[in-house]
Amino acid sequence: MATSSSSAAAAATVRKPAGLATLPPQRVRVLKFALWLLALLPFVRLLYLGATEQFGANPLEFVTRSTGTWTLVMLCLTLTITPLRRLTGWNWLIKMRRMLGLFAFFYAVQHFLLWIGVDRGFDLAYMIKDVYKRPFITVGFTAFMLMVPLALTSTNGMVRRLGGKRWQALHRLVYAIAVLAILHYWWHKAGKNDFGEVSIYAAVVFVLLGMRVWWRLRKPAAATRQPAA
Ligand code: HEM
């Protein structure tokens, strides 16, 4: 009797809905697709504004600023996944991280190509001079260059080939990228003495990186077992 009541209790425990902590794979796939659509919206918006000639008086500035901003937003969202997962226990969030990181790269490529093609007119000497002479470009360029190996090693095959530890160590570059991105934005705005928006992004990045430092200092052994980004 005791056995049957305890097995009934165990069955009830198993059937109990786990809330958002564990989601069935199908629901995770739906959420991932919804997030993919949302992350694509800024690009679709740009296509629409371009097709309807709504870029304003300075189209290059408009599109460069938009793609730069969305690169930074996607970077911040990528960096939010690990702390959010840790605070909520929603382990499925990890399935969104690679996609958000790749969206950051997607917008960064557009931002970079605009500079190469439209701003600098594919003139290599002019590009080198810009990277060398304007510190905010130097920093943005460095951030983008650091994003390239992360995008190239984002596949499961590359994780296997590099091995988990080396892959994690490489992908910690995302922290440097986030700091450089803030510096790039800050320097860009310094000329106009307009620090309103960039201060908000800087605070977000500070909190997201600060949480990692805090956790690492408090529980070094546990923290090293956490995924990198
Ligand atoms: C991680 C990489 C990067 C991020 C997150 C980023 C982000 C940004 C942001 C947020 C802005 C300011 C947007 C605004 O004023 O509202 C900006 C502006 C700009 N970025 Fe980047 N950027 C990155 C890389 C680069 C690279 C590689 C280049 C070129 C080499 C570049 C060139 C520029 C230029 C020229 C502007 C000024 C646009 C204008 O006001 O006319 N950025 N970027």
Which short descriptors sum up this protein?
mainly alpha, binds protoporphyrin IX containing FE, disordered N terminus, 229 residues
Layout of helices and strands, plus pairs?
Elements: H1 2-15, H2 25-51, H3 59-88, H4 94-119, H5 124-133, H6 135-152, H7 156-162, H8 164-171, H9 173-190, H10 196-218, H11 220-224
The chain binds protoporphyrin IX containing FE.
Structure description:
- The chain is mostly helical.
- The protein has one domain.
- Helices cover about 80% and strands about 0% of the residues.
- The protein has helices at about 1-15, 25-50, 60-90, 95-120, 125-135, 135-150, 155-160, 165-170, 175-190, 195-220, 220-225.
- Mean pLDDT is about 90; it is low at about 1-15.
- Protoporphyrin IX containing FE (HEM) binds near residues 65, 71 and 137.
Estimate nothing, just give the exact number of structural domains: 1
Secondary-structure element pattern, one letter each: HHHHHHHHHHH
Q: What Rg is obtained from the alpha carbons, in whole angstroms? A: 22 Å
The molecules bound to the chains, other than polymers, are: protoporphyrin IX containing FE
In DSSP terms (H or I, runs of 4 or more residues), the helix count works out at: 11
Mean pLDDT across residues: 90
